[in-house]
Amino acid sequence: MKIGYARVSTRDQHLELQIDALTKAGCDKIYRDIASGARAERPALNEMIRNLRPGDVLVIWKLDRLGRSLNHLIGLVNDLMEKKIGLQSLHDPIDTTTPQGRLSFNLFASLAEFERDLIRERTQAGLSAARARGRNGGRPKGLPQKAEATACAAETLYKEGKLTVNEIAEKLGIAKSTLYAYLRHRGVALGSFKPDAECA
Q1: Could you say which of 67, 109, 139, 161 has the lowest number of CB atoms within 10 Å?
Q2: Domains and CATH numbers, the chain
Q3: Nearest Cα to 40, choosing from 3, 80, 67, 4?
Q4: Could you give the residue numbers annotated as active site?
Q5: Residues 85-117: pLDDT tens digits?
Q6: 171 Cβ neighbours under 8 A, 6+ residues apart
Q7: Tens of pLDDT, residues 47-62
């Protein structure tokens, strides 16, 4: 059985485009959520996961409609594959019901892991550079200790100027408002990209 999942971030957005495409793709049932990408509370998604059975195929509009973050997406798809549940994305080259599609997803997951390692390396390099310049490189005032690395990575990616704010927030698994808060705490001038990618 084909099961569809549609999500929009706010009530001002509309689900019709996704629902029409999922219906055209042959979905027997479609679950719907209105929730931001970073929010954990997705009642329809949770209900759907509980009801999926081996042999079912989950169909989505795009990968970013399914996962809260890259880590969440990869974990979720791996869980589905272990339960013999397929995943088809209408606008991404992902279809885990085929050997080629499973290979594509595994490559995608490997690239994501590589990207996380790069962010970790940049964070450590930024902190080392800050210490070499005589700065503490500690956590920004007002942020919890666990947010230190994420805030520094956010600054690094923002200053590189290669990704949009939405893309950075998605890659780090945080809300856009949280990203802006991290950047403000680190004294980053918003709205201007700087060539220096080192964290201070």
Answers
A1: 161
A2: 2-97 (3.40.50.1390), 116-185 (no CATH)
A3: 67
A4: 9
A5: 999 989 877 888 888 777 777 776 665 565 556
A6: 70, 115, 119, 157, 163
A7: 999 999 999 999 998 8
